[in-house]
Design a protein that fits this description.
- The protein has about 325 residues and is mainly beta.
- The chain has three helices and twelve strands, in the order H-E-E-E-E-E-H-E-E-E-E-H-E-E-E.
- It has helices at about 1-20, 135-145, 250-255, and strands at about 30-40, 50-65, 70-85, 100-115, 120-130, 160-175, 185-195, 195-210, 235-250, 275-285, 290-295, 310-320.
């Protein structure tokens, strides 16, 4: 069963390697991105906590940047995420350490990239947790088609509740703006308020390799232009590392809906502070961007038996 994930990783790595030969450089105004998250991408044969996610993103350049003005990019995202406890076999009640639930959402986001390579983002999200998010149905289909054991315990999933979030995020570039850098660093912070999640986080961003300035970089989905772009290189290929600390006040996927929680529903308490980091590789050229990433996160619920890990595969296609 793990072979399916291994083949997908091999395919993504092959696409990463062959992307340089795809197309000649042009200007593109729009971008489609698909991101798949799964704990099996780590090849550790685990299936727990944030176990699967799939997002579709449409990005559009709304304002070309300049030496004096910020570049603006608008994005619409539709996503689905699945959360499980430690086990989903017949013994799930003995190892229940966080709720079963899905999260189905739509998000709109605006990104502003300044000439000094600082980045500001705001977003608004509306979604559903619980039965109406179809976590059970998606996971059952996934396990059936990939030859995995049927998950058990979904009858205890969270009650359905809609929710909304707003978020503001800021990235401060730290190093001098130079041509053809191979090392870069910055600090980031974000604040999220809403009925699905409320909290804040701060962290660092490190990059090593061949990358463009922020307004032209795949790191910010910014390889979109109205006029002929001036790139420092023919491509981007770099590694990144992003550690962060999060302080959470509310998490509906752990604590249940803010307004629909019931005494017979399994919920648990959040860990107020947790640490996470992501590291990965990005290749971008012409129409395509490919990304492979790994995320580690300490316990976000007080009852969780273990920390969590998952991998991500992202592919972007640009067009006019």
């Amino acid at each position: 069963m793990i072979n399916c994930y291994q083949k997908l990783l091999v395919f993504s790595a092959a696409l990463l390697a062959t992307a340089p030969f795809v197309a000649a450089q042009k200007t593109y105004h729009h971008q489609l991105t698909v991101v798949s998250d799964n704990d099996n991408y780590t090849l550790k044969k685990k299936d727990r906590y944030y176990t699967n996610g799939l997002t579709f993103q449409f990005s559009k350049l709304t304002k070309e940047g300049s030496a004096e003005k910020s570049k603006k990019i608008w994005m619409l995202e539709v996503g689905h995420k699945i959360f499980n406890p430690y086990k989903q076999n017949k013994h799930f009640k003995e190892t229940m350490d966080r709720p079963f639930t899905g999260l189905l959402y739509v998000k709109t986001e605006a990104t502003y990239i300044t000439p000094a390579e600082n980045v500001f983002r705001w977003s608004a999200l509306a979604g559903l947790i619980g039965k109406a998010a179809f976590g059970k149905e998606v996971q059952q289909w996934h396990h059936h088609n990939f030859g995995l054991p049927a998950p058990q315990g979904w009858e205890t999933q969270l009650k359905t509740e809609p929710g909304m979030n707003v978020q503001a995020a800021y990235y401060q570039h730290l190093l001098p703006v130079k041509e053809k850098r191979i090392v870069d660093a910055g600090v980031k912070a974000d604040l999220t308020v809403g009925t699905l999640y409320t909290g804040m986080s701060s962290g660092l961003v490190f990059k090593l390799g061949a990358f463009e300035k922020a307004a032209n970089s795949a790191h910010w989905n910014a390889r979109l232009h109205h006029s002929q772009p001036v790139y420092q290189r023919n491509f981007e290929f770099y590694f990144y590392f992003e550690p962060s600390i999060t302080y959470q006040l509310f998490n509906a996927t752990v604590q249940g809906g803010l307004f629909t929680r019931k005494k017979d529903e399994y919920t648990t308490a959040i860990e107020p502070i947790f640490y996470s980091h992501s590291f990965g590789a990005v290749y971008a050229k012409d129409r395509w961007t490919t990304q492979l990433a790994f995320t580690y996160k300490t316990r976000e619920a007080t009852t969780m038996r273990a920390n969590e890990n998952y991998g991500s595969i992202g592919i972007s296609y640009r067009f006019n």
